[in-house]
Amino acid sequence: MPVWSHSRLQTYEDCPLKYKSQYIDCLKPREENVEAFLGIRVHETLAKLFRDLMMARMPSVDDLLAQFRRSWQENWNDAIRITKAEYDSGDYLRVGERCISNFYRRNHPFDDATTLAIEQRLDFALDDEGRYRVQGYVDRIARRPDGAYEIHDYKTSQHLPSQEEIDSDRQLALYEIGLRQRWRDVNEVRLIWHYVALDETMASQRAPEELDSLQEAVIALIDEIDAALEFPPRESSLCEWCGYQEHCPRRQHLVQIKQLPVDEQNLEDGVRLVDAYAELAGRRDEVKDELESLKQKIIAYAAGRGFDVLFGSAHRLTLTRRSKLTLPGQGEPARDALEHILRERGVWDEVSQLSGSRLLRALESGELDEPLRRAVLERAPTHETVLLRLSRLKEPGN
Ligand code: SF4
């Protein structure tokens, strides 16, 4: 039985395919990205700060910065990917230094609470039987003189969430559940996020009923993940930072192109096909509006003179007029009323049509019993159609 974590649940919510790659297929992520590297270095430096404080030693901010730079240099390697091409490792190093200085300046002399644990592993159950186990590592747990416990989390992100997002954050609320199981005297708990790159601190507290509903929601999500048979890719801005792009049908081609020498990338077969397609599609889009306006002029010209066929110098143009009903949409009352009248008058069977998309939906949702399903597929076998949708890349190579 797996032990769940906030990041495991979050990965499934962000992208089921990434979840499968990471947690079911246990594939190794391709490379570390600089944001994760920066986060690790800042976390280890702040952990060292509080370890020193627990040993009654007060390091200076310069000591911490020196340690941060040392660790950065010792651990940096060329495989670390810098996603934002306009920046380099020096820029990220400076962001890290700012994180350390901000935190130090804002919290010095660090005596408003007693640190109880640093990078503490919490392993706890969400149910009485222990079937839903969750684990997490808390950056720091502290206790205030008034007895309130604090769960601290360091964030190096440059995005400051809203208070609403903080109040519904799952990660620290889960840690609170774990904390309450770990120690008996826990009464008040404060959840605190240090957005160290932005020099901002945010806090939240949870009512017992909020923790109960969180517990229920997480159990429901775990059940959903356990029952999942398919893990489709879900593209988002997070793909740029995904370490499983080479296993993902949405990004594999891009990964392969980027592995080619720059001057060969535009010669790759797939790139050439897409470029040719884009060029033709662009021309089609260019003339579409022009064609439509010309069509309207032709219709008006022919209608005004009662012509059905017009002649050009080398072509003839035949105008065929057909009436078309504008049916009310699915679910609209007028559609139900229309169907009702047609059924009542006994003409429904003559005028209603088989709808391929509705039949396919019924097949896929399992609402048809097996004999009916087989009978349908025998007479209407499925076939695959591929729609192409062209969209512009935001930046070259993106
Ligand atoms: S690249 Fe994007 S869509 Fe593909 S697995 Fe990763 S997160 Fe999912």
From TrEMBL:
<dbReference type="InterPro" id="IPR011604">
    <property type="entry name" value="PDDEXK-like_dom_sf"/>
</dbReference>
<dbReference type="InterPro" id="IPR038726">
    <property type="entry name" value="PDDEXK_AddAB-type"/>
</dbReference>
<feature type="domain" description="PD-(D/E)XK endonuclease-like">
    <location>
        <begin position="4"/>
        <end position="249"/>
    </location>
</feature>
<dbReference type="Pfam" id="PF12705">
    <property type="entry name" value="PDDEXK_1"/>
</dbReference>
<protein>
    <recommendedName>
        <fullName>PD-(D/E)XK endonuclease-like domain-containing protein</fullName>
    </recommendedName>
</protein>
